[in-house]
Amino acid sequence: MREHLGVETQRQWSDKAIGRTTPVLMGLYSLACVIAKEMRQSTLLQPALTSWYDKKDQATFSDVIAFIRRTIWAEKYFSNSSMSDDFIKLTPNDADTLINQLAMAA
């Protein structure tokens, strides 16, 4: 199963440690998918498109991880800011761009 999923056997790990790795990775993958499904009810999940790869029509796992990061960071760091003109340092568009770039780079 590990070979099918692309999870390589590490040289100096014990057999028990290797046996625990695949279920933990699958559990984390499943958890991320469930979290994204719940978040998607209020926010749209769109696949990331780049100028060199624009034929993607379905989200990949990296898109899901970036979506989760983007949603959490937007709520945590940018939702409590005052909308008064005296306090706005980033426009909403600039804040969106910053969050998107950070989410894809992390």
Describe this structure in words.
By secondary structure, the protein is mainly α. It has helices at 2-5, 15-39, 61-78, 92-105. It has 4 helices and no strands. It is elongated, with a radius of gyration of 18 Å. It folds into 2 domains: 1-39, no CATH class; 43-106, no CATH class. α3 crosses α4. It is 58% helix and 0% strand.
How many separate domains make up the residues? 2
Q: Please tell me how large the radius of gyration is.
A: 18 Å
The helical percent reads 55-70%
How much strand? under 5%
If helices are DSSP runs of H or I spanning 4 or more residues, what is the number of helices?
Answer: 4
Name some characteristics of this structure.
single chain, 106 residues, mainly alpha, 4 helices, elongated
Quick structural overview:
By secondary structure, the chain is mostly helical. The protein has helices at 2-5, 15-39, 61-78, 92-105. The two termini are 28 Å apart.
What is the strand and helix layout of this fold?
Elements: H1 2-5, H2 15-39, H3 61-78, H4 92-105
